[in-house]
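Lab channel / #folding
Pinned by the channel admin:
"Please post every new chain as: sequence first, then the structure tokens as a reply. Keep commentary short and put observations after the output so the thread stays searchable."

First post following the new format, from NK:
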Amino acid sequence: MFKFIKQYADNMHYAAIYPIVSLIIFFAFFVGLLIVVKRMKKDYVHELANMPLQ
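Reply from TO:
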């Protein structure tokens, strides 16, 4: 089965684009997450931090 997958992947002309696209999606997700976290209000973060203690 692995031999079939390897042979199929070798025949694909655009096989090198998939790792690049996945890296861009991975990087964009974490940059977006960082932006969301940085924009949070400090009061809201403090409220969320105290939730387990209440």
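NK: Residues 30 and 36 are 10 Å apart (CA to CA).
TO: also worth noting, Residues 16-53 form one domain.
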